[in-house]
Specification:
- The chain has 474 residues and is an alpha+beta fold.
- The chain has four domains: 35 residues; 91 residues, no CATH class; 52 residues, no CATH class; 172 residues, Lipocalin, CATH 2.40.128.
- The protein is 39% helix and 35% strand.
């Protein structure tokens, strides 16, 4: 039996090691030295400092290729990358150069493009190149910032050092402590007032919630067909009557076309028509005047409205009934009455024992009156006249096809107290129905200021005619 020599054993061991080393070399990075797996893509960068050949190409942290080479083309760096054949890149993919950590090796990162786009072919160019941060420039900037910080620190040391600097610093700390104590005292003194304000706001929110709940109940009743407005909305008999009226009109039109009746003969007999035309020509001058009058009458429109406001501070309601007469689109007049829960204010001078004093009284049974003239300029309306039985002015701003109205009013000017200022917004939620909210007498120095919320109903005279004609009469 032959024995393997020591030299043969060593040679066999070296051969096996070389085979294993060659196999592992071919498998590293799924490429292998000398093998050319995958396809090539290119990208042009302004600067690829630190990027080496065979650097990794990754997508979402997974290596999908290697850098095949780096070359200079027209003053820029052309990077050639070999990508695994099973990895397909869209034409709008983006590429950038990243670093492992702060001072680690450079690698190329690719972000896939839009799904469904065409793919890059062998030799394709990635045009969406992201600029990389220049570490050297960042370090230079950091050095410059450090130098500036050192200068500031040195200046601060010069200011603080010495007995005078310490004294100034102590004075600053003392002033700061006193300021904080004063602020703390102010907060403590006003804590009760802030609590009262929060409580009032909470109560106002609850009252507004109740008001909106009541409004929702009204809307629900309308949707169920309850009340006059509900019957108007839900009663199908109104539409049945309309269908019958249209059918009757159709029958009348057919009889006229057939020449039946006086109107039929008037329409179909040419001799009668000629006689009427001759008579009408002699009345042209008179008809022109009549037409002008009719046109002016058509422009004249009348509106009636009711507005109710719930004053949260007064825990009471304020009501308005107004009539608006509009002779032109840009001009109208307003007359109305106001029921204020406080009533009408009157001031009288009384003299007792030679001493004259002014006494203010409120008559809760008295009504207040409005009488205004208004002029509209595009979306803005200016008003003036009598507001709640006192002189005053108002301005309205309309938006969203006049569905939203912002109003500011000022009236009851008196040298001994602040004027009555009021602001509110009104928005139409349904046909003829509007919601409103605002603040009444908000600069009052007599405790009359109050937030409010409410609603209003507005009708034109034609709407009233329609409503009254359909109200059942017992």
């Amino acid at each position: 039996m032959s024995v393997i020599s020591t030299e043969a054993k060593v040679g066999l061991f070296i051969l096996i090691a070389l085979i294993i080393l060659g196999y592992m070399s071919f498998q590293v990075g799924e490429y292998g030295f000398g093998l050319k797996k995958g396809y090539l893509v290119k990208a042009v960068f302004d600067n690829v400092s630190g990027l080496e050949k065979d650097a990794s190409v990754v997508i979402a942290g997974v290596e999908v290729g290697r850098v095949e080479g780096v070359s200079l083309v027209h003053g820029k760096a052309l990077v050639l990358m070999r990508i695994l054949p099973e990895v397909m890149l869209e034409r709008d993919a983006s590429v950038s150069i990243k670093t492992h950590g702060v001072l680690g090796d450079k690698y190329v990162e690719i972000v896939p493009g839009t799904v469904g786009e065409e793919y890059l072919l062998d030799g394709g160019v990635i045009t969406n190149v992201k600029k990389q941060a220049d570490i050297d420039q960042l370090l230079r900037d950091l050095g410059s910032i450090s130098s500036d910080v050192m200068k500031v620190t040195s200046s601060l040391e010069n200011v603080i050092s010495g007995e005078e600097g310490e004294a100034n610093l102590k004075a600053i700390m003392t002033n700061t402590r006193e300021l904080m104590e004063n602020l703390n005292n102010i907060v403590k003194r006003n804590d009760e007032k802030v609590s009262v304000m929060i409580s009032n706001f909470s109560n106002a929110s609850k009252e507004m919630e109740r008001a909106f709940t009541s409004l929702n109940e009204i809307v629900d009743k309308i949707n169920r067909g309850e009340g006059t407005i509900g019957q108007l909305v839900k009663d199908e008999g109104v539409f049945d009557n309309l269908d019958k009226t249209i059918a009757s009109l159709r029958e009348i039109a057919e009889k006229i076309n057939e020449g039946k009746g006086s109107i039929g003969r008037l329409v179909n007999e040419e001799e009668t028509v000629d006689n009427i035309n001759a008579s009408l020509k002699s009345l042209d001058t008179s008809m022109e005047g009549i037409n002008k009058y009719i046109t002016k009458t058509d422009q004249f429109r009348t509106f009636v409205s009711y507005r109710g406001e719930y004053l949260f501070e007064e825990d009471n309601a304020k009501s308005y009934v107004e009539l608006k007469l509009r002779p032109r689109e840009d001009k109208y007049y307003i007359v109305g009455v106001v029921a204020d829960p406080r009533g009408k204010r009157s001031v009288t001078d009384r003299t007792v024992d030679g001493t004259t004093s002014r006494i203010e009284e409120w008559d809760r049974n008295e009504l207040l009156f409005n009488a205004e003239i208004a002029k509209r300029y595009k979306d803005v309306v200016l008003r003036g006249g009598l507001l709640e039985s006192t002189g005053g002015v108002g301005i309205d701003y309309f938006a969203f096809n006049d569905d939203l109205k912002l109003t500011f009013e000022a009236f009851d000017f008196d040298s001994e107290r602040n004027p009555h200022l009021k602001f509110y917004a009104e928005y139409g939620i349904f046909n003829h129905i509007y919601l409103s909210a605002g603040y009444d007498d908000f600069i009052s120095d007599e405790g009359n200021e109050s937030p409010f919320a409410g609603f209003s109903i507005k009708f034109e005279d034609e709407d009233l005619k329609y409503l009254l004609s359909n109200v059942p009469i017992p």
